[in-house]
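re: ur question from yesterday

yeah so i grabbed the chain u mentioned. its 288 aa long if i counted rite. heres the sequnce exactly as i have it in my notes:
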Amino acid sequence: MATDTVTVEVTGDAGAPPVRLRCTDSGGDGPPLLLLHGLAGHSGEWDALAARFTPTHRVVAFDARGSGASTRRPGDVSRAAHVRDVVQVAHDLRLPAGRLVLVGQSMGGITALLAAATHPELVRALVLVEAGPDGPSPSLPETIGAWLDSWPVPFPDAEAATAFFGGGAAGRAWADGLAPGPGGLHPRVDRDVMVATVQENAHRDFWDAWDEVRCPVLVVRAGKGMLKQQEADRMAERRPGTRIALVPEAGHDVHLDDPGAVFGEVAAFLAEVDRADRAGRADPEAAV
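ran it thru and got these structure tokens back, copy pasting raw so excuse formatting
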């Protein structure tokens, strides 16, 4: 099945130019999955997982505002703006409300969490990949700035970029996010925009939003990642029924390190959601 590339425009505040979001859409009549990448990433990171789901699902992904082929310097990079993007993509691509499965990794996971909390009518199920509501993280903007400053731009070629980003599938995916320019390959993100994107995380947590989520949730944690067991345990304590999965040998980019394992966990979770839905339809009182 061919994947289409479309552009969705999101209207900003009065006088601000619209933000253009580059989206990929596998099409088809299957249940919709909307995939949200992490900070400074791009929608192509999901290609390996998307390929596994397209035979049975309609898979949509988009470059977040400020990243990839979407508007590079949007005026608003707040979490609320990112949530509006999710809602606009779902609306413009006619993803049916109440059937949408949101899958987000890292900062994309925070966006997915907030979208599920504030738009429960839209989201059927939520998958958080190496993402949780803990905070605040006061040093995060400085950490992100230093990390981006460490990139040896321009990279001479894709091989050098892949090696810098740790090699393997994850390194190749990060290298694929670069674009040709003077002297080699350059980022498709701007440092100040990325630092501004995480400013909100420096001052708050998202536990209030977590408590508002009403749909089934899967949390995928990597054994060598950033989401710690203590945070995952607290998520499950505050929201009984949350399903926690561990991919032991993967890092923070678990969707790149082991897409097969992530697919297996997500597919099993969605099968469980389907069974619960069928049981609820068969016995409406049991679903109350």
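noticed a couple things. The two ends are 39 Å apart (CA to CA). also The first helix runs from residue 47 to 53.
anyway ttyl
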